[in-house]
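--- STAGE predict ---
source: upstream dedup step, 1 unique chain passed
mode: sequence only
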Amino acid sequence: MNITIKPPDYSTPSRTTPAFYAPCMPDIAAAPRSGHFAVFIVDDDPGVLKSLARFVRAAGYAVRTFSSASELLAHDVMDGPGCVILDLLMPGIDGRELQTAICKGKFERSIIFISGTSDAPTIVDAMKAGAIDFLIKPVDGNALLAALAIAVERQTKLYQREAELAGIKHKLAQLTPREAEVLRHVIAGRLNKQIAWALGTVEKTIKVHRGRIMEKMAVRSIAELVRLTEQIGIAPCENEECQGKDSDSLIVEIGSRSNRIGGHALQIA
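--- STAGE serialize ---
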């Protein structure tokens, strides 16, 4: 697929509609994708927007089109798996500005840039900001499908990661405040008698708490427990840190730390 679009020195929106790309059969197979994966295409040129949308739909993706960055931002459509094919040079909010806005949003969204410019610093900046690819116009259909396949793979891994963290958070929620308190002593490598002394109880009680923690967290070893707590951002309890804190404040602290893991991409109730 080749689409002749704006020249590199484009500066005004007034121009003739580019020639439609020549139909082609991609020589790469589209990657497996979720039926809910959507491709949002943003370009101020109606001809390009139409041709890109037709090609991407033919590859099996759901497509939404927008003629400007403002139009995309005005619609609450960024609430599920998908990616954005984004023109770099547009009147008003340009592609890089829209990329910044998307990156600050609630959901992580992969971006594929298309542009008539081959300015190296611009390309480098866009890639450093997280873009999957920067395709020079006229856009090659195989290169676009390859970039979309990467976007699907990245989104799949992101959702798997979110599901894993949500599972850990759910397990943590099953702990009592006292068990949550004991947990941080356990992952610090302390023995039952050391924990009992620190918490002012008996060793037998700590042994019971430890067993329940291992059961609720579905682990068989302290190493597994440490791995899970590291993923969710729970640090081992230092003596001076834990002393003087009640169990309720500790479990609240664990919850607040786990909510921060994954940044804006992870939203766990």
